[in-house]
Amino acid sequence: MSEIVLDYSNTCDCVTESDIDAIIPEVLAAKELVDLKSGQGGDFLGWLDLPSSVSEELIKDIEETAEKARSLCDLFIVIGIGGSYLGARAAISALKGEGLAEFENKSGNSPDICFAGFNMSSSSLSSLLDLIKRRRVFVNVISKSGTTTEPAIALRAAYEAMKEKVGREEASKRFAATTDKAKGALKTLADREGWKTYVVPDDVGGRYSVLTPVGLLPIAAAGLDIRKMLAGARAAKENAAVKDVRQNTSCLYAAIRNILYRKGKKIEILSNFEQYLHYFGEWWKQLYGESEGKDGKGLYPDSLDFSTDLHSMGQYIQEGERLLAETFINVLESDKKIFVPHWEDNLDGLGYLEGKSLDYINSIALKATAEAHLQGGVPNMEFKIPRLDEYFIGYMFYMFEYACAVSGYILGVNPFNQPGVEAYKQNMFRLLGKFK
Ligand code: PA5
Question: What is the pLDDT of residues 22-48, one digit of tens each?
């Protein structure tokens, strides 16, 4: 299978074929607004063309910088918040591992990748400064505006620590900035210090920027194949061009989630059965939360890791307020083969599972969960992902971005602004005396 398939058979009475027929004209109208870049926020649709518009020159340049960074460091630090780090983190943890994988003894000379500058925790920042002291580091600071407080504080502290450790000249070789082409404090600083710089295109907002240098540089620095990722995104773009909504995975998903919303569902949970997809869920939450949560509307996006969270949130999903819809991410094939070992005395009663693969048991867990949740009144759908690699991560990024844009227009909001994010900032600046 070279494509991702959306199975919505478990939405049953909540989403009928006639519901889909009825919403199709709205889906096509929304799709046209996206394709023609003629809807609200239409000047932020540059991401639509990225799978094919990222030039060979830029890809080579990013690969060279990534290679150079890999030779200079054993820890590649990404400083950024929101759309400036979540895409890279999603791809890197999906493909390089998450949780226990971070403690593995790495073979080869692949640097560790860490993320910072997305909170104001002194504990986190002091760990970062400690790492800078102990490790050979390279820092990629990412901020489209170049003025966001959280990454700006982390950058100040990190640059001071680096200058103290290796001197200003050497520190400058170990920083790269990804920011606006001309404006913002970060651009001025990077130019003054002689850092390598990359541009976040004007017409691409943070949460749609993973296929620009924002995502591509850290992902390449992790040793992943960004060409393959762009090829996956191109395949998703081809599918997104299909006019038949039922054959167009992005449009079908946009249609179904809007039907669910109109039928009273208020929350959509993106549930994975693969721990490595934890940060993919975080990326997806930001994409849908910031794009649709406005004008008093929108499904609240949540994400869970199963079966882990079945032991914490499973009770609520099964029997709590019936506001929920669920979307499963099912990775069909894994390259790790683990089988339940034989125990002579069968002390733990697992004899019935002996010799069965963990992938098989996990797939049954998904099936059982989908069935139980449907019976409990939670309609659910399932994205079938052939396997986790760069191609399908690229595919998923584009597929969900396109779906989000179409879904936002069906909902009647501008999917490309985020005016609500300013409220806390203005209060914080006032309380901190920024405007005195
Ligand atoms: O999606 C968005 O636009 C936001 O999440 C931004 O990416 C986030 O606020 C960081 O902004 P900046 O890249 O300007 O520092």
Answer: 999 999 999 999 999 999 999 999 999
Give the model's pLDDT for residue 106.
65
Q: To test the ligand 1 pocket, which listed residue (44, 140, 148, 417) has its Cβ within 8 A of the most ligand atoms?
A: 148
Rounded Cα–Cα distance for residues 199 and 217 (Å): 11
Q: Is 285 a catalytic residue?
A: no
Mean pLDDT computed over 250-265:
98
Terminal-residue alpha carbon distance, the chain: 60
Element (H, E) at 157: helix 149-166
User: For 47-67, what is the mean pLDDT?
Assistant: 97
Residue 315 burial class via C-beta count within 10 angstroms: exposed 0-12, middle 13-18, buried 19 and up: exposed
DSSP H or E run through 117 = none
Q: Please indicate whether residue 117, judged by its CB atom, sits closer than 6 Å to ligand 1.
A: no
CA 366 – CA 331 distance, rounded (Å):
11
What percent of the chain is predicted at pLDDT more than 70?
98
The crossing angle, in degrees rounded to 10, of helices 249-262 and 226-240 is 60
Strand locations in 196-315 (E): 196-199, 267-272, 300-305
The DSSP secondary-structure symbol of 352 reads: G
Residue 338's Cβ-side half-sphere holds a number of Cα atoms within 13 Å equal to 6
For 313, phi and psi rounded to 5 degrees? -105, -5
The helix or strand, by DSSP H or E, that contains position 258, with its residue range, turns out to be: helix 249-262
Give 205's pLDDT tier (boundaries 50, 70, 90).
very high
pLDDT tens digit sequence for 310-352: 999 999 999 999 999 999 999 999 988 999 999 999 999 999 9
311, 336, 337, 436: the catalytic one is 311
425 noted as active-site residue: yes
Question: Is residue 12 very low, low, confident or very high in pLDDT (cuts 50, 70, 90)?
Answer: confident
SS3 content of the chain, % helix, strand, coil (to 5): 55, 15, 30
The verdict on the CB of residue 84 being under 6 Å from ligand 1 is yes
Give the whole-angstrom CA distance, residue 369 versus residue 375: 10
Decide: pTM greater than 0.90.
yes
Mean of the pLDDT values across residues 232-237?
98
Helix (H, G, I), strand (E, B) or coil at 6: strand
Q: For residues 155 and 80, give the distance between their C-alpha atoms in angstroms, rounded to a whole number.
A: 9
